[in-house]
Each structure stands twice: as C-alpha cells, then as structure tokens.
Amino acid sequence: MATKLRWLDEDCNICGQRLNSWDARLSKTLAYKNKVCEKCIAKEYDMDIDVLRERMEDFFGMRPCQGI
C-alpha cells in the first residue's frame, strides 16, 4: 500500500518548486545531496515522469505516494 502524499516546507534546489514526500524519497534513493523535485530528476535523466516512476518501481520497488 502506498503512503499518502505530504507537502514539505522545502523547495527544489533546481527549479524552486515546493517539494512533497515523493520528491524527498526519490532524492534520497538516488543519493542527491540536496532534495530535487521529480520533474527535475526526470529532466536530468532525459525521461518522461511516467517512465521515471516505472523505473523506480522496477528497480527499487518504490511506488509514488497516493495523490500524485
């Protein structure tokens, strides 16, 4: 069962967008020193957001939070 989405009082270190709990999980899993949003991570890896989510589930067993 996926966890519920929580908004954090932090911003993406690349684009400034407000981060959520899914962004924080992605950043931690991919060993980013600073938290980055899902959109910027997908852009860095030259992927569509849906493809990034599929890869995260396939390789790490991670599913996005409910509400995304």
SSE map:
Elements: E1 7-11, E2 18-20, H1 21-29, H2 38-44, H3 49-60
Antiparallel strand pairs: 1-2
Plain-language structure description:
- The protein has 68 residues and is of the alpha+beta class.
- It is 41% helix and 12% strand.
- It has three helices and two strands; from the N terminus they run ββααα.
- The chain has helices at residues 21-29, 38-44, 49-60; strands at 7-11, 18-20.
- It has a two-stranded antiparallel ribbon.
- Strand 1 and strand 2 (18-20) form a beta hairpin.
- The chain starts with 6 loop residues before the first strand and ends in an 8-residue tail after the last helix.
- 16% of the residues are buried.
- The mean pLDDT is 90.
Key phrases:
68 residues; alpha+beta; two-stranded antiparallel sheet; 2 strands
Q: How big a fraction of the residues is strand?
A: 5-15%
How large, in whole angstroms, is the Cα Rg?
11 Å
Mean pLDDT: 90
Structural class: alpha+beta
Shape type: globular
Brief overview, please?
With 68 residues, this protein is an alpha+beta fold.
